[in-house]
Amino acid sequence: MSNPVKRIAAIHDLSGFGRSSLTVVIPIVSTMGIQVCPLPTALLSTHTSEFKNYHMKDLTEDMVGIINHWQKLEIEFDAIYSGFLGSPGQIKVVSKFIKEFKTNSNFVVVDPVMGDDGSTYATIGNEMILGMRELIKSANIITPNLTEAAFLLDEPQPEKMDTDKIKKWARRLSEEGPSIVIITSVPLPDENEMTSVIAYDRETDRFWQVKCTYIPAYFPGTGDIFTSVITGCLLQGDSLPIAMDRAVQFVSLAIHASYGHKFPLREGVLLERVLGSLRNPVSMSTFQLF
Ligand code: PXL
Fold first, then answer.
1. pLDDT digits over 171-183, tens only?
2. Domain containing 38: what range?
3. Domain CATH code at residue 88
4. Rounded distance between C-alpha atoms, residue 161 and residue 232, angstroms
5. What residue owns the CA closest to ligand 1's atom 6?
6. 226 within domain boundaries
7. N or C: which end of the chain has fewer CB within 10 A?
């Protein structure tokens, strides 16, 4: 019997303040009509970007207890979606969870949350990077930003990106396991005011690109917002390029709705002001074959 509404397991931290991870994943995926079952990886007072002296508790042991109970209940998920992980040891727990809950009819999205803008987040060391390189092997879809793609491929952080190089990177990441690789924050060589998202779909051997205006403001949590919308769209039956378009448009809308206000960027985008737009049908798309 299929679930009356689609259901995902969401493996992310719960950061109380700052609009990232579970505090954005749950409202976004729920608004898109999909049930979210959180498997929290860590409990934090805030996310780790631009906040100091935050409280953090690793929840690896609790994860094992939750997974054991879910197995006894024989819960089935339509997708498994992981993001920020609390410690290297936890990556093994997540891999085991994926092995046990992956079926022929669901899919696994791994957002290899490790850093942005050329550097890692405060809690991400070399062991976490090595662990993420392993974890992406069990994913169907991965959504690194350009910084994370470089860490996954053990490449130096790029200053510039050309079409050939980004295509090679996406193919190489796909060879590790995921059949769909979506890379965000890819600069465009000749267009300074624009940025882009590119995707490679191994089954069709096609590349897709969505361009958008670059806004010079770093709001933490936008990567989580992006991948939450992608996951929701694919579960709703959208094609990959339409899912990319909707995710780019939603993140852009959230940033635009926030940018003109005067509040610290570290508090994240004003998600609550734009969440309802996820219920609108797709009315515009700008994707291109690439
Ligand atoms: O948005 C990614 C993210 C998730 N979780 C925690 C973070 C960050 C980014 O800073 O610190 C705890």
1. 999 999 999 999 9
2. 7-289
3. 3.40.1190.20
4. 29
5. 47
6. yes
7. N
